[in-house]
Amino acid sequence: MYTLKQANTYIEKNRKRVIADYRNDYHAMAPIGWINDPNGFIYYKGEYHLFYQYYPYKAVWGPMHWGHSKSKDLVKWETVPVALAPDHSYDKDGCFSGTAIEKDGKLYLMYTGHIEGETEEDIRQVQCIAVSSDGIHFEKVEQNPVITEADLPENAKPQDFRDPKVVKNGDFYYSLIASKKEDGGGQILLYKSKDFLDWEFVSVMLNGEKEEGPMWECPDIFELDGKDVLLLSVDGLPKKENNFLNTHSVLAIVGEMDWEKGIFHKETVEELDYGLDFYAPQTIEDDKNRRIMISWMQMWGRNIPTETEQHGWAGSMTLPRELFIKNNHVYQRPVAEIKNYYTNKQSYKTIKLYDETKAFEELSAEVSAIELVLDVKAGKRFDIEVRSNQIEKTLVSYDCETSFLELNRINSGIELVGNEEEHVYKRSVYCEPENNKIELEIFLDRASMEVFANQGKYTLTSTIYPTQKADNIKITAEGQVEVDRLDTWDIEV
Ligand code: FRU
């Protein structure tokens, strides 16, 4: 069996061997090895704690541990010792995703213990608890597992029962757990407890239709601006027009949660991010009453160059984003703290482009933030090239006639291919101009790009792997496009 000691010793010994070329500067990452979902994200005793699905020994998914980083400002992250290893009979094949809560000054984690057997039918997923008084060292409680197969309602598969999200409401702790139904489709099961150890089944909180995907994962729930929001990560959500083109998609479901009856009434459902690499987000409320979300910036089933080229690591988190709701739509804004790391500002104003390309030669943008306001009332199209050089570029384009904003990484660098039936290398979103303007904030790190459009109304998040220095910006206009404002900053952490 794996142990914590073995994991921490391995990391200490080997972390210097990692090849740093594509390692992001201002995004949370593990020192070595593989990461996926953020876990146990919480603001605890004055610091942000972020755990994550972790296999330290290789840059591929393996028996899951919980890696751990902490931060004072959501930008600079410090790696601390691994929090959980799969070292008990009830989690022997992995400590899967889960969440955290503070209770009586202690930090409690609820996670899924994954147990394998001879066949797929023998798999069992159970819910377990670990507790810490210092936020660093965790003990698994002796009552584990605290929710098992015996607590499942009819029609729920014991093989796919995972990713508890814990919240407090009134006198009770609640746990929302993703479940696969025997007859297909996903559902969210609700459990409650007074003491966080003894749990009882309450209800099927949300019942998925077959066309809503075979497996729901990583639920999150919160109240924001007078609405209740449920985030769901869905494995295998069928493609619908321009939506859900990746193998795994994230849904933002806005509605109302009836805690008495344990039922979520959904009003609107939208895809949360329109990029190529965004999955399994988690949110917290911090001491400033902000709702902040962080997500895995990667997609299942794709080649990851830092793995194939043997750099010794794979995976990064997104920039933490503050959430808002307007008209039942979830807006995402980069957390304000990132601005504390802006340097070397360069600004341009009122550049009129008419069927032409302008290269901003004096500008270089690699690890940087770019803000643009473009007036499109007389335009047909614009293409913004970032991280470009003679042969590579990543494109953010806008079609003024159809109002689609698109991110295209076909020429970004190392080719990224996935399990999708058709090669997915671009994504787009319908994004109407506001007062004839399209406003963009683009965050670039060594191997990533996050686009926030129209004050965070839509986001597009993707990894990119330029093979050589790529830091130019060019804008091409078809018809007349006016760049009202272009500001760039380097981001130095
Ligand atoms: C989502 C997920 C979770 C699971 C974890 C395993 O990406 O599949 O459902 O708990 O990853 O690493």
Task: Provide a brief overview of the structure.
The protein is mostly beta strands. The chain is built from two helices and 31 strands.
CATH superfamily of the largest domain: Glycosyl hydrolase domain, family 43
Number of helices: 2
The CATH first-level class of the largest domain comes to Mainly Beta
Pick out the low-confidence regions. Answer: none
What does the average pLDDT come to? Answer: 97
Q: Which topology of the largest domain does CATH recognise?
A: Tachylectin-2, Chain A
Described by the principal axes of the CA atoms, the overall outline is globular
Which small-molecule species are bound to the chains here?
Answer: beta-D-fructofuranose
Q: In percent terms, what proportion of residues is strand?
A: over 45%
CATH architectural label of the largest domain: 5 Propeller
The major β-sheet equals: 10 strands, antiparallel
Q: Which value, in Å, is the CA radius of gyration?
A: 22 Å
Total E-strand runs: 31
Distance between the terminal alpha carbons, to the nearest Å? 38 Å
The secondary structure category is mainly beta
State the domain count. Answer: 2
Q: Please give the share of residues in helix.
A: under 10%
